[in-house]
C-alpha cells in the first residue's frame, strides 16, 4: 500500500515534525551559538561572549554550564536566568526588546549588524514592524527609528502553516482541504531557514540578486502572539510592578522574541509582473536588454539550484531606471554592476530546498520558464561566472557544509532529511553544469530529467551511474501529475 503524502512527509522529516508546535518555546540557536562561540552558522545570529561581558555577566563558564545543561524550558535569553540587570523598554508595554538584541550579533557583517540594531532601536522607540497585507505568511516591514523600511521579517511561528499564521485563508485551507495541505516535498515550517539559505547560495555564487537575509530574533507587540503569551507577559509585568521581589524571579518579562528570517529591504523595485508587461509593450533597448538577460539568468541559476517551488512573477522584483532624457546609456558605453540600469531582486525564497523532487500532485513549475528570456541560451557571462564553481566538487561540498551549519540550528533538524535535501540540490547542480556546458537555454534546462546525487548508493531505485566512490546519481523517472513540460 502506498503511504499517504503526509506520512511520507513526516517520515522523511524524521517523524518529529508535529504541525502547530511552538518553536519559540525552546530555541536551540542561542545554545549552539554559546556552545561554539567562534564558529557561527552561516546566516544565523550569534550571541557573542564579548557582548555578554559588556552586559556585565559575571563568569562565562558558569553561564555556559547553565545554557548547555540547564533546564529544558530555559528562557530564550540566558542572562535573565542569572537575574542580571536589563534595560527596560521605554515603550511598547508588553515587549522586552533587550531580549532579542542579546540574541543578535553579526560581528563579521557590520552593515547587517547596523540594520538589526536600528530595527531594535526603532522597536524600543515604539516604531513597530508592520504586517505586510499581501502574501500568505505573517511577514513584516521592519523600520528604523526614522520610520524608513529597512527589512522584511518573517517569523518562523507565522509561516503559512504554523499555528500563529495570521492569514485566515491559510487557516481555511488547512481546515477545509487538509489533503492538499502544504507542499509535500518541503520540510514544513523551515521557511525562515530556506530564506537565509537562498541568500547564502547567492553569496557563494556571487549572483548578487538575493537581498541579504539572515536568521534574526525580534520581539514586537505587533507580531502575532497567542492569547496565552500575551496574558503571561501582562501578568508578569503586573507582578513586577506590584511585587518586585516576586517579579524578579521570572525568567523572562515581556513577550518572547521570535526567530525568523530578516531580509534587507531593497528600494525602488517593483514586482516583476509590472515591468514584464511594460517591456512587452515597449521593448528594452539592446544594451539594457542584455543587462536584464544577465540578471534573469542569475535568477534562473538560483531558483534551479535551490529548487524553488514558489517563483511566481510576484516573488521577484525589478528595478528599472530610464535615463533622464528618455534615452538609455549609449550602446558603446560599458556599464558596470553599480551603474546598471536594470536590476533583479529575488525575494520570498522560503519555499525551496525540497527533500525530494516534486512528483505528486503538482510540479511547482518555475514561472519564469514561460518568459521569452528563458528561450535564449545562457550567456557566456553567466557560464564564466557559474561553471568554474559548480563543476568543482570541493565547492559543492563546501556549500553543503555551510548549509548544514545553518540548517542544523533548527530545533527539529534531522540529518537524514538534510541529506535528502542536499541530494536534490546536488542533482540540480549536476544538471545545471551540463546545461551550461552544452549551451542550453533555461527552457531546455527545466526539461532535463531530474537527478538525485546521493552520498550512499544503497537507497537508490532508479537508473544508477557511479560518479565517484562516494556519490551516486539517480535519474528521477516519475513524472509530476500536473506539469507543463
Ligand atoms: N527585500 C524586499 N525588498 C523590498 N520589498 C520587499 C522585500 N521583500 C518583500 N517585499 C515586498 O513585500 C511583499 C511580500 O513579500 P513576500 O516575501 O513575497 O512575502 P510572502 O511570503 O508573504 O508572500 C512583496 O510582494 C514585495 O512587494
Ligand atoms: Mg510572496
Automatic annotation (TrEMBL):
Record localization: Cell membrane; Cytoplasm, Cytosol; Early endosome membrane; Endoplasmic reticulum membrane
Topology within the bilayer: Peripheral membrane protein
Catalytic reactions on record: a 1,2-diacyl-sn-glycero-3-phospho-(1D-myo-inositol) + ATP = a 1,2-diacyl-sn-glycero-3-phospho-(1D-myo-inositol 4-phosphate) + ADP + H(+)
Keyword Endoplasmic reticulum: yes
Region (Disordered): 1-25
Domain PI3K/PI4K catalytic, first and last residues per copy: 126-455
Pfam families tied to this protein: PI3_PI4_kinase (PF00454)
Annotated keywords: ATP-binding, Cell membrane, Cytoplasm, Endoplasmic reticulum, Endosome, Golgi apparatus, Kinase, Lipid metabolism, Membrane, Nucleotide-binding, Transferase
Predominant place of localization: membrane
Feature: compositional bias, Basic and acidic residues: 1-11
EC number: 2.7.1.67
UniProt xrefs under InterPro entries: Lsb6/PI4K2 (IPR039756), PI3/4_kinase_cat_dom (IPR000403)
Family label: Belongs to the PI3/PI4-kinase family. Type II PI4K subfamily.
Record protein name field: Phosphatidylinositol 4-kinase type 2
Provenance organism: Pipistrellus nathusii (Nathusius' pipistrelle)
Lineage: Eukaryota, Metazoa, Chordata, Craniata, Vertebrata
